[in-house]
Every structure is written in structure tokens, then in C-alpha cells.
Task: inverse folding
């Protein structure tokens, strides 16, 4: 019984770690996209005001 619990716990830890890495990657991509969108909007405003 203990061994089964250890195996399940190890699997859960592995899956949680994998999910954490994927989430961090998605967050990084979202930050870069948001920065690009903000800079594009700022450039549009500058061009539109000239």
C-alpha cells in the first residue's frame, strides 16, 4: 500500500512540475505579446498624431 502511494505521489509531483513549466512558458509568451501590443498601439498613436 505504501509503495503504491509513493508511486502515485511521484506521478503527481511529476505532472505538477510539468504543468508548472507549461504555465510559466505560456505566461512568458503572454507577457511578450502584451508588450508588443502596447508598443504597437503607442507607435500607432504617435503616427496618428503627426
Result:
Amino acid at each position: 500500500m505504501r509503495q503504491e502511494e509513493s508511486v502515485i505521489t511521484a506521478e503527481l509531483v511529476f505532472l505538477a512540475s510539468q504543468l508548472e513549466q507549461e504555465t510559466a512558458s505560456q505566461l512568458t509568451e503572454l507577457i511578450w505579446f502584451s508588450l508588443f501590443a502596447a508598443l504597437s498601439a503607442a507607435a500607432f498613436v504617435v503616427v496618428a498624431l503627426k
Remarks:
- The chain has a mean pLDDT of 96.
- The chain is about 95% helix and 0% strand.
